[in-house]
Amino acid sequence: MFLHFDQGKLLVESDVKFAEGRSMEALPLDEKINDLKVVLKVEDFQQLLDALIRRDYQVVGPTLKEGAVVYDSLTRVSQLPAGWTDEQQAGHYSLKKRSDQAYFGYGVGPQSWKKFLFPPRITLWKQKSPGEAPEPAELPQDAPRYAFLGVRACELKAITLQDQVFLTGPFIDPIYQARREKVFIVAVNCGQAGANCFCASVGSGPQVTQGYDLALTEVTAAPEAYFLVEVGSQAGQTLLNEVTHRPATGKEVAEARQVVERAASEMSKSLATADLKDFLYTNYENPYWAEVAGRCLACANCTLVCPTCFCTSPEDVSDLTGQVTEHRRRWDSCFSLDFSYLHGGSVRPSRQSRYRQWLTHKLGTWQDQFGEIGCVGCGRCITWCPVGIDLTTEIRALRQAAATLTAGTETNPKSDER
Predict the structure, then answer these.
(1) What are the tens digits of pLDDT across the range 218-237?
(2) Which of 5, 88, 210, 221 gets the highest tally of CB atoms within 10 A of its CB?
(3) Distance CA 405, CA 418 (A)
(4) Residue 55 in contact with residue 238, Cβ under 8 Å?
(5) Would you say the pTM of this structure is higher than 0.85?
(6) What is the CA radius of gyration of the chain?
């Protein structure tokens, strides 16, 4: 592996491939290795965690903490948010009890899996004394070995989008690569849609289709609750062999399918994406940007909870002796005034220009970079916006404003005063 530095980022030459091993199987997988569907009883669910722990995985999954469903280390299924669900609206999030004991009966919380693969703050390299060559702070062999439990379809799509950012192109980020190639993914199909979900309209959910090792569908309406399990990799099959299970009946497969179909039918929000890039490019000076900017606080909540945003800034620190220097990378946001600072000042001094940059990149220029939009429809940016700005609503309003301007121009064309 050949490390070098470019614009404050620790990088590796792109000809370095993923290490040999099981990680290759869980990264983009076009088809499931087989169509086998099996049933895992709720009382046997702990066996799945035990099997992962025996393989030295650090299991990370949903749990209740400080009034929200967050992702944290797990060793027991009793740590999962059984019997709890969430209520989400624009600018609102709360928890309430369910009528059953579903383990995954909630939407998505404020955190995403991004924080484990692309840490919010990390030391890239350090130099122990002047004149010595810098050395990377995290070596690939030291990367944590995570097993993600409860990854939703939109979140799995977000991981694949971040793969495009960090694992394709002329450079590969070795820190992300080392963490990503070791991860084991247990996905969960959604059984309900949150009020801010719109994954179905952007093609990222609510059913997982690829990129997982095992996929679960939790069925709670039957006389006996169970998980329908699908296998997405050889590693997933090997692990499943250590867990008590049985073949699913046709009735159980149909019940699981209905769970996902119900979640899709519950979505009330949508985002039309067909001509979105060209529309945004031709409406760069639309006056409606000023209207939404008047409500935006530029607090950066939307970018911090977003599972695909990847803006960072470098910082250099030294110890009190001045003998050890560290070069760190931390999450930043395009809503920060200093993020676009160049010599002489920020190139985006107004909230209007920064909001426009965020939305136009997420839904427009991202397509030029990576071939698809950078939004997965999880709705986090809507839920955690303090003033309840809803990007699906803003896009519709922007389209309406553009149509009004066009109609006004056609009705009252400006005279040629030359």
Answers:
(1) 999 768 899 999 999 999 99
(2) 88
(3) 23
(4) no
(5) yes
(6) 23
